[in-house]
Amino acid sequence: RYKDVYFLEALIRLSYELGDYRKTLKYLNQFPEYNLNKDFIIIKSQSLIEVGQPKKSIIVLNGYTGLADQKIYSIFIKAYDLINDLSNHQLYCEKLINEFPDFELGFREMILYYIKIDKYTKALGLAIKAKNKFKKNPLFGYMEAEIYFFKNKYNLALDGFIKSNRAGFEDIELQIKIGYCYEKIGQISLSDSLFLNLIEKHPNNASLLNNYAYTITERESL
Q1: pLDDT digit string (tens) for 161-182?
Q2: Is 73 exposed, middle or buried (0-12, 13-18, 19+ CB in 10 A)?
Q3: Helix (H) and strand (E) counts for the chain?
Q4: 149: how many CB neighbours lie within 10 A of its CB?
């Protein structure tokens, strides 16, 4: 109504905070000078990811000529991951780790990248480094255990999963993996007890039911 840029900026920020990303982009299209402001670069690139347009998000980020920060690198990482551009995904993970070593996301994404390309030894080394660096975050202990799980080292995986759980990492998928590890190391009664307890608490969880059914099928096929 008043054609005032301050109202337009407010509408952009409010729409973004409310999660209405299409409206955010609509208002940004009325603001051609958005690219002079890093906040609006971030808002537009993140909004494009949220509406399923990661390639356009990368174009917006590449138009930014200022100093990149953790948020810029994080959106690059997410966008390249979504389009499965492994080389650029790795590049920005490395940038984030090297330039912002106290920011956990770079380590987490790099570990996932190594797992994705089946480089478990590198993933494990970085997970252990991150676990020691970010001692208050149980996530990296969980990721270390998950790598052992992928490599069929179920005793080590079980130990890591239990420690992560005690450290505050609570997730039903973690509990499922603990049950599966018990099964694999021959502690059948513990496996059954854990699965049945979880099913009682989460009777409609499809992942849980499928995993327990698969575990029993594997056991009966031996």
Answers
A1: 999 988 888 788 899 999 999 9
A2: buried
A3: 13, 0
A4: 19
Residue 38's identity, in one-letter code, is K
Apex CA 159: angle with CA 166 and CA 208, to 5°? 75
Q: Please, what's the b/e burial string for 171-191 (b: 16 or more CB within 10 A of its CB; e: otherwise)? A: eeebbbbbbbbbbbeeeeebb
89 Cβ contact partners less than 8 Å away, ≥ 6 residues apart: 77, 80, 81, 109, 113
Residues making up the chain, counted from first to last? 222
Please report the DSSP string for 178-201 in residue order: HHHHHHHTT-HHHHHHHHHHHHHH
Burial class (CB in 10 A: 0-12, 13-18, 19+), 38: middle
pTM of the full predicted structure?
0.81
Provide the 10 A C-beta neighbour count for residue 65.
Answer: 8
- Quick one: which of 174, 136, 169 has its CA closest to 157? 174
Q: Tokens standing for 28?
A: 């940004």
pLDDT tens-place string over residues 45-95 = 999 999 999 999 999 999 988 888 999 999 999 999 999 999 999 999 999
Spatial contact of 141 and 169, defined as CB atoms under 8 Å apart:
yes
Cα four-point dihedral sign 113, 115, 119, 124: positive
Give me the torsion for CA of 140, 141, 147, 153, rounded to 10°. 170
| Paired tokens of 184 | 């694999």
